[in-house]
Amino acid sequence: MPPNDDAKGTVLFVDDDASITTSLRAHLAWVLPRVRVLTAASAAEGLATLGKEKVDVILSDYRMPGGDGAQFLADAARVAPTARLIAFSATPDEFLITKGRTDNYAVLSKPVDPDLLVHMLTRKLADKG
Amino acid sequence: MQLKVLLVEDSPADEELTLLALRRTSGPPLELRTAGTLAAALKLLGQETFDVVLCDLNLPDSQGLETVRALVAVGPPVVAHTGTVDESVGPAAVATGADDFVAKGSVAGSRLRSILQFAVERRRRAPVQQTPTERLEQLVAERTASLQDATSLLRTVTNNVDAGILLGQLDPFRILFVNPAFEHLFNLSAAKLLANNMAWVEAILPDDLDAVLAKFAQAQTGPTTSRFRVASPDGPRWIAASTRISQERSDGPRYMNVVTTDVTAEVEAERLRGVAVQREAELASERDANKFKSDFLNLAAHELANPISPIRLEVASLRAMNTALYHDGRISDLADAMDANLRRLGGLLQDMRQVGRLQTKTLTFNLEETDLAKLCSAAVASLRGLAEQAGLDLAYVAPPPTMAHVDANRCAEVLLNLGSNAIKYTPAGGRVVVKLVPQGNEARISVSDTGRGIAAEDIPRLFTPFVRVGDEKAAPGTGLGLYICKGLVEAQGGTIALSSAGLGKGTTVLVGLPLAAPAAAEA
Q1: How far, in Å, CA of A15 to CA of A22, rounded?
Q2: Cross-chain Cβ contact B366/A27 below 8 Å
């Protein structure tokens, strides 16, 4: 995938698995070089970041230690009402998808498909008001 | 017959015991009067009429046969109530004129009452005075008859009980009696048992013999019970025996009686209960082991899936780096190959987790009214790319909206699985057809292909996990797909079946799903 210089904005990525936050940050540096990537290892850390920074898209694992991902996404939507939300789940079952529909966030299954993720991220970034 | 009895007895204790024994008997009421001395007795007999007199011989004012003589002279039948150990007193009393005799406490109340009644009866039948000798002879005849009755009664009982009875004398051991049940239990005739006193012990299986002999020895100090086997035509027979040694007098002979019953069925039932308990324990530990396996499978699949996301992102970075810097086709080929393998690994782990969840029943189903026509057409649309790649014709025979009560996502998973199987096993130029037909109260979805087909003998194994048939290397796969499909379909109340006309002749998988009830559809 060639770099996309048009995509701009700030992405917050919340996941307790450092290997995935690191590799996503590195990958986005190649394919979306003008997008700023912030990372957080917990829900609390993510909310703290949202209090300090303006974030356009929030990516979060649905299941995390120290807080349920759904709760974090609900809190994040309150703290940063303009941010678009994307949730990862290793078990994207109907419950999660229905919830995604009503809470207005997208759901991506794990393991992550990098192209699909970048495609969705690009769309959400372009979507911003 | 109503009786008026005069009891002549000087001992208050004996009087009370005798009255008690007689009062407890059944039959018409007895009128019982008492006298403590011969004088008192004679006085009462002078005033009132009695049917019979039961008299103790030794009274304060009269001894032994004198008492009999005095009372017999008055008239009513007299029964001597002897208390002495000397057995000749009774017959002597009869010889003196008494109608009968009975030793105190030797018989039950009912028997005592019969003796009194008989004495009265005899007088009524033979009003002519019998000589004492005649009376004694008649008594002997009556006693013999009653003894014969008792013997025949005893024989009836011992011949008809299920328990085997052996009566033997000890010092030295000699069998006196065995009943038919005993013969049957030991498979030995009475003749053989009586001819060889140890034959029944020899019938006991050698393994059990020592324990039984020890129990018999123990019987010297009190009754014992034992269990042993004897050979029988139907296999070893279990026998429970209770052994008792008795001795009437300290200088008399010792007897041993052995009462035996067949407990084979009981022992077998006990054994089966033991087996059932053991089997239950085994099943429980098997369940634990299975749960451990499922838990381990779930955990392993989850943990193994975690590193795939970062690796796929890193491979994607590698490809992006190559695009930006090196433009080397070999690197992008390698990255493509790595990503394909990672996708395969991801799919395998996804299947493992699905199997784990099916086995632990932790998969949730959100059943709701779903249009299967729409669902099938969406599934066919997402399979179209795969079919084109494989050079296949993919057709969908669409009916009008067909509502079923199912979990849309699980059904889509099943259709995608079956469709991609059909595409995988059908050579280029072939055809895959997805068809939805409502039939009765179920929706039938068939996925048919013109592919390599399946040998008839392999079909029953296909829905078992990890089973792959035919040339396994021809197409990648885990052998979990159909197993998962079956689990997902059945959990929604549906059915799944596979048919093939044979190798090279294509395959059809038929899924039946419950249609929504019309009432529910209107609601």
Answers
A1: 10
A2: no
Domain B276-359 in CATH 1.10.1660:
no
Neighbours of B28 (CB within 10 A): 8
Query: A116 — contact with chain B (CB < 8 Å)?
Result: no
CB B434 within 8 A of CB B458: no
- Each domain of chain A, given as residue ranges in start order, spans 9-126
Q: How confident is the model at residue A101 (pLDDT cuts 50, 70, 90)?
A: low
Q: What angle do CA B139, B140, B141 make, to 5 degrees?
A: 90
Partner residue facing B312 (CB), from A22, A26, A111? A111
CA–CA gap between residue B513 and residue B492 (Å, rounded): 8
Shortest CA distance from A98: residue in chain B? B366
Q: Where are the domains of chain B?
A: 3-157, 161-262, 276-359, 368-522
pLDDT-above-90 percentage for chain B: 21
ipTM of predicted complex: 0.84
Largest distance between two CA atoms of chain B: 152
Of residues B305, B310, B320, nearest to A90 (C-beta): B305
Tell me the CATH class for B3-157. alpha beta
The second-level CATH assignment, the architecture, of A9-126 is 3-Layer(aba) Sandwich (3.40)
From the number of C-beta atoms within 10 Å of its C-beta (0-12, 13-18, 19+), residue B311 rates as: buried
What top-level class would CATH report for the domain B161-262? alpha beta
Do B7 and B20 touch, CB atoms closer than 8 A?
A: no
Q: Tell me how far apart the alpha carbons of residues A15 and A32 are, in angstroms, rounded to a whole number.
A: 20
Mean pLDDT of B352-360: 81
φ/ψ (deg, to 5) at B390: -85, 0
DSSP, collapsed to helix, strand or coil, labels residue A95 as helix
Evaluate if pTM is beyond 0.80: no
What CATH number has the domain spanning B368-522? Answer: 3.30.565.10
Nearest CA in chain A to B347: A111
